[in-house]
Amino acid sequence: MRFMFVGDSCTIGQAGDHTWRYRMWQHLEAALPGRYEIVGPRCELYDSGADAPRSHAYADPDFPAPARRHLAGWGEGWLHMAPLIGETVTATGADVLLVSLGLIDLGFYTNSSQTAENVRAFVAAARTANPRVRVVVMPVIPNVRAGYDAPFAAECERFNELLAKAVADLDTATSPLLLATAPESYDLDTDTYDGTHPGPSGEHKLAAAFASAMHQAWGLGAPYEDRATPARASG
Questions:
Q1: Most exposed: 74, 98, 148, 160, by fewest CB within 10 Å?
Q2: The pTM of the whole model exceeds 0.85
Q3: Is pLDDT of 136 > 80?
Q4: Can you list the domains of the chain with their CATH numbers?
Q5: DSSP labels for 27-84?
Q6: Share of the chain residues as helix, strand and coil, in percent rounded to the nearest 5
Q7: pLDDT in tens, 161-177
């Protein structure tokens, strides 16, 4: 079974991060040993301090290269991924898409209604490439901007409602579409390192949300086990 991570800055991570992708790789190693593959056209982290905004400085240098694959980008959202997903699913043979998008769309590019339309376009393109593709979607999670920007917070709330409706409308037996439950007790002070991007505990909570959704709804994998790791490296 081929898994592909699709996301924005919270998914790609930046130099020194473990990333929730790393936590999910650890989970898949334990839950589906020898029965899965991580696919995607990219493998890098973002590096804001480098001439080229790409880095391979993961917090764990032993994170295997094949497991680093993804389709995520700093500053990229549903708007950017909808045109890419069809060709990427075709090229990689992805069976399961784990998607965390929306925050960057609502913050800079599209309103909640427009973003929801891009969700539907994304799902249609993925299914054209693989009619049996499974998709797990994460709602927009808590973030620091929503705490001081009331119109943005309202758009996040409305988009999450529209996302839930899209999932209900588009879910089929042939190509299941699943809405993950946003992490419980997600604390911006302890689960992120800047009010938006997940630190170690936040990474575990995001990975656990995806793993729990798949296990509970599809019987895929196993309950998530939080594997303790050191804090995020600096730099």
A1: 148
A2: yes
A3: yes
A4: 2-218 (3.40.50.1110)
A5: HHHHHSTTS-EE--SB-PBB-TTSSSS-B---SSTTS-GGGG-BEE-TT--HHHHHHH
A6: 45, 15, 45
A7: 999 999 999 999 999 99
